[in-house]
Design goal:
Rossmann fold, alpha/beta, globular, 319 residues, 20% strand
Amino acid sequence: MSCKNDLIRTVKSILFLAYILSALGCVEYAHTPKRMQGKNIQTVEPLMSIAATPFPTTRAPLIQNENYALDTIEFEAFAARLWRPKGAGPHPAVLLLPGIWGDRIMVEFAEDLVSKGYVCLQLGSHRYLERLRSKGKMSTEVLAEMIKQQVVETGEAFHWLSTQPEIDAERIGILGVSIGAIIATLFSETDGNIKAASYLLGGGNLPDIMAAPKGYVKRRLRNRIMTENGLTEEEFKSEVIRTLQPVDPLNFTGRIDPARILMVNGRFDQVIPYRNAKELWKALGEPTLVVLPAGHYTASFFMPYVRYKVAKHFEKFLG
């Protein structure tokens, strides 16, 4: 038993040391309010049309224990999971938008937030690849429409969440990772009802992001579009500029006070390059930015620290 306890203490010490080292390796650019006086405020047309009434859904219990309850929610075109803390509420809530293959990371965020009294509505990542595979022919126009569809579905999820009796509709935030961060930015900056936002590993200037060849899924998508449409590299770049600029987060900023936004990005990210993160950061009014000494995928090593920063951010603005 003594050996087992020693092993547990050793593992905990290693994890604690890794957490401290990860925190020390990060750089934080705190938001400075004076930089945003009248800057970047604009009126934007929404990317979606959301009905005012709750959307038809089915809800079924999945897990219930002493810490939380987990339900499955079936919307018309997608499914989600609802994490609920104990107590009648009303609780603050956070909408969780994953990256591709990002469900495990979102479960960790949900478990952390629900333990702190938040309701979490977690959308699934599988719908990204399922829809890409279901398209008979892929083009940049189809890609733009898929981005709009994701924004619409985010709106459906948000407005359904805001109608639930256990939710405080005035305290709803959003958290997105990778492509989920891009969708979260687009939704937040067009809907205007999000009270706090965390964008992890996202960025702006979608044409430039798609032109960067790094990233397994993005590279395969680029190659598929170029092959199926007979495009050269230069023609592809022209097409993404024409079709993706209308859904670029850089064109939809100014609806949220930058003080209520937290960005986390990897300094060595090549999937959504750091330069694109900085473009979005400036367009949003220079909110608080945490820069990890990591790439897009190696950022996962810093997730305990990121979860801490995200929880503190939501605590400040959602309570």
